[in-house]
Every structure is written in C-alpha cells, then in structure tokens.
Design goal:
By secondary structure, this protein is an alpha+beta fold. Helices cover 28% and strands 27% of the residues. The longest helix has 18 residues.
Amino acid sequence: MQDHSKAPASWRIALPHSAAAVPVARALVRTALAELEHTADGDTAELLTAELVANAVEHTSGGTPIELVVELMPTGCQVEVHDPDPAPPADLTRPGTEPPDPWQEHGRGLLLIRALSSSCGHRTTGSGKAVWFRLPAVPAPRRSPE
C-alpha cells in the first residue's frame, strides 16, 4: 500500500454563485482532508472556507460560477476561492481601522481568516481574483498503546 500522505493532492470544483455553495464547499474540504487523513485542522479549514465562499457570493455579481481549489501538501493545506471580480477583498491582509461591530452579523469573516490562518492573501487571475488561506499541518495525536 502506498503512503499518499506525502504527495500533494488538489481538488478544483465550480460552485453555484449562491448561498448553496457554502455547505458544498465545506463538505468538499472536510472530505478532502479526511480522505488523505490530513493533519490540518479540519474544523478551522471548513470555517475559513465557508467565509471565503460566502464573501465571494455576497460581494461579486452573480451569473458566473465561483471556483474552489483545495491543495494538500505535507506542510499543510491551501484553500483558494476564485471569483469574477478583480477588486481585492477589503482588509484581508491588513487590519481594519475599525473593529467589527459585535452586534452586526457581518464584518468578521476576513478578521477570522487573518486570525486563524497561517497566511492569507489574494491575487488577480485571468478571470477575476483568487482569495486564499493556508493552514499548517499539525502533529497527529499520539495513540496510547493498548
């Protein structure tokens, strides 16, 4: 049996430009990490993926699908969300001047991504932009001898 945990693997999927994309994206990330028994924090990966997808759906015009790219490497995972709007996401890589209002439902997604990822950013693409985050691999929990 081959050890696939060291080989890079990637998934790329087009998602509908609607709120329905969020649970699909979460499920893909969860499945990708579980399939390879990857050691990046799956809960954090799902949360941050949901934030990126929700932002792409909310802040770009509909009609064009958004795309989710999940890459697993021995050092961790990287998740990218591609959307058709080339404008960079506000305050992703620099702290905002105003803290988000704790009573508002919106405004904390990019803060979460900055706080919980090992790195994050955005780049322009031929059809818009890609917003990404990385999570490091974490040591697998030790199993006690039985």
